[in-house]
Amino acid sequence: MKKQYFLLTGIIFFGISLSAQVNFSKYFIDKSLRFDYIIGGNNKETKVYFNKLKEEPYWGGSEKNLIDKFNFGDFRVSVFDSTGNTLLYSRGYSSLYVEWIDTEEAKQISKSFYESVVVPFPKQKVLIKIEMRNKKNIFNTLFEMPVNPNSVSIIKDKQKKYSVQKIKYSGNSHKKLDIVIIPDGYTKNDSSKFHNDCKRFMGYFFEVEPFKTYKNKVNFWSVDAFSEESGTDMPRQNIWKNTILNTHFNTFGSERYLTTQDIEVVRNTAAYVPYDQIYILVNTDKYGGGGIYNYYNLCSADNEYSGRVFTHEFGHAFAALADEYQYGYEKAEDIYDMSVEPWQVNITNLVDFDSKWKNLVEKDTPIPTPDIKKYKNKIGAFEGAGYVKKEIYRPAHDCKMRSNSTNEFCPVCYKTVLDMLLFYSE
Ligand SMILES: [Zn+2]
Hints:
Blueprint: H1 2-17, H2 24-27, E1 28-41, E2 46-56, E3 75-81, E4 87-93, H3 96-100, H4 105-108, E5 111-122, E6 126-133, E7 139-147, E8 164-168, E9 177-184, H5 191-205, E10 218-223, H6 263-270, E11 277-282, E12 289-292, E13 296-300, H7 306-319, E14 326-329, E15 382-385, E16 387-394, H8 411-425
Parallel strand pairs: 9-10, 9-11, 11-13, 14-16
Antiparallel strand pairs: 1-2, 1-5, 3-4, 3-6, 6-7, 8-10, 12-13, 15-16
Bound molecules: zinc ion.
């Protein structure tokens, strides 16, 4: 009996993990449903409160690959049919909130953040579910809600304010990776600078593999959403600018960490075109940027390193890659549960190295791998990554996710980015 039970669960598990992708036109129409919510809590507990549903005019994602196969991100949004039994769409993502809960402030107070996810617009009643990983990396349900696509409470505001540029069009958005660049701190007078900057950054993007080889799988768009003032907020210098997306440096006290918490405005602005990734280009020459998985990318436009930062941040936001440098934390225990592997594909604590890139390591390369000349071009496990000096390891001596001195992804990051690119463009 026990044996049968295990066999049965085995089949069910198999059925879920390898389920065939669902038929888009049977369940969805070619628009997006935006689910906005407030997430709040502290380092001990998290709660989600529904805010609003909005219909947006385009679905930029794949019609073929609706179910997430990567299992990346701190959160997951899933759409089920109304019975809750058939999974129709899922996507992993991360957010600013989940970074905040590792800060000192989150030990003292509770705080809330506005967040938003976009799914294809359902034809029939569905169930939307938001899950978050616990410390053991298991997803737990935070919130679920039935959605009737015919409900009058779904907001359908049509704003026709901004013009849109097709910077590079390779074909139908359902079969391409669509990147929308939206400006912050560019005034109307800066419009030609913005258009030139978009082309310049697209140039930086296509210098990097695998984007260079797979150029024809990518569309670039931009939305002319201009600000009252040029620049961005620099709290430490007491510089405050009136800009449309309210970007700022000094996020969580990190001088170079450039973000915005105005997610609603970001989503409203991006929705003018079909998109998979949002890139916010910030009109400043100060060094900085940010990238959060399936959330957004930011980069300053005029720093000498901006070209390299642009694709580094894209590694985070597009492929959920971890930073491979050390920064701010002494001990791995401060931010990782050392009894399980971190979920990020390009770092390991060697708890379950088989589940990571061990298959790419040559037999005579020691694990951990000494960071010496002999192994400079080898794949191994080099200590110092994921913001900590000790006990967290990266795949190579250097990588775009570690430093600006190289413009290449290491083989592990490269493969992840390529797999993701193919997932969006199949
Ligand atoms: Zn890497």
